[in-house]
Amino acid sequence: MSANRPIVLTIAGFDPSAGAGVLADIKTFEQHRVYGFAINTGNTIQTENEFFEMQWTDLAFVLKSLEKLFMNYTINAVKIGIVPSLEYLKEIVFAIKRLSPKTKIVWDTVLKSSTNFDFTTIGNRQDLNEILNQVDLITPNYDEIKIIFPDFTRLSCFISSLSPIRRESNEDFICSVLLKGGHNPNEMGVDYLYIDNEIHQLLPKTIECYEKHGSGCVLSAAITANIALEQNLKTACEKAKIYTENYLLSNSTKLGFHHV
User: Fold this and answer.
1) pLDDT of 146
2) What span, in angstroms and rounded, lies between the C-alpha atoms of 221 and 236?
3) pTM of the predicted structure, to 2 decimals
4) Considering only CA atoms, which of 241, 120, 91, 78 is closest in space to residue 249?
5) For labelling alongside 92, which of 38, 63, 121, 167 has CA 20 to 30 A away?
6) Domain total for the chain?
7) Which residue intervals define the domain Pyridoxamine kinase/Phosphomethylpyrimidine kinase in the entry (predicted)?
8) How far apart are CA 41 and CA 22, in angstroms?
9) Residue range(s) defining the domain that contains residue 158
């Protein structure tokens, strides 16, 4: 193990096309000069254009793998991708915090695939609140933010507000939010980063990008790597956005290239 590279972990699904999931995350980690570990939450049958089937990994197996890795290595940051339920996610998040309280957690809130296969439904709001108070950053798009925070029905007001995101009890969430702009028809590609009482607008360098399968995975993995490299959250997100845009521009197909 290289002493010069921090260790990061992705907990996500296996995509055989390697555009998304743990394979995309590991590619991204390597380009950021961090050492990537991976735990598979499920096997998929899919291409970059179509999703066919999902076979989830037993939670006990995932938790046992987590325990062994954290017992043997110092893991600086964790990115979590697709999971079958909030209960499954909550067990993972709380296990990480029990094993390594200082480890940073980024939850890429993938609730469904781009081909409309549902992964996680938000059923138990209390579980969601408990999860959000343990993770450091979530990265929803405009479709997902409306599911996670249904009170924010007018997103224009949500964006313009300088108030931190609140739950029903009006207490502030601890976690920060990167609201991705890829699904925003009014400001395509413009991201909004919410940190405490601050909002940072992250502008794209171009909107002339090619659509890519798994671009959200790449972005959240890049953020996780940058956090492990001890960048502050704003810088981590800014640099990850640049990396992801270069990935989107790498070719005209839905499967992008990662460049050194």
Assistant:
1) 79
2) 11
3) 0.89
4) 241
5) 167
6) 1
7) 15-256
8) 9
9) 7-248
Residue 153 has pLDDT above 70, yes or no: no
- Provide the b/e sequence for 79-114 (b: ≥16 CB within 10 Å): bbbbbbbbebbbbbbebbeeebeebbbbbbbbbbbb
Question: What angle separates helix 215-228 from helix 21-31, to the nearest 10 degrees?
Answer: 40
Locate 80 and state its tokens.
């979590």
H or E element in which residue 140 lies: none
What pLDDT, in 10s, does the model give residues 194-240? 987 788 999 888 777 888 888 999 999 999 999 999 999 999 999 99
Q: Which of 176, 86, 88 minimizes the C-alpha distance to 135?
A: 176
> Residue 183 is part of a domain; what is its CATH number?
3.40.1190.20
181 within domain boundaries: yes
pLDDT, tens only, 71-129: 999 999 999 999 998 899 999 999 999 999 999 999 999 876 444 445 566 667 788 88
Q: Per the structure block, which two tokens stand in for 185?
A: 């028809």
DSSP H or E run through 228: helix 215-228
Q: How far apart are CA 30 and CA 33, in angstroms?
A: 5
Rounded CA-CA distance 255/248 in Å is: 9
DSSP state of 137: E
Task: Yes or no: say if 20 and 217 are a contact pair by the CB < 8 Å rule.
Answer: yes
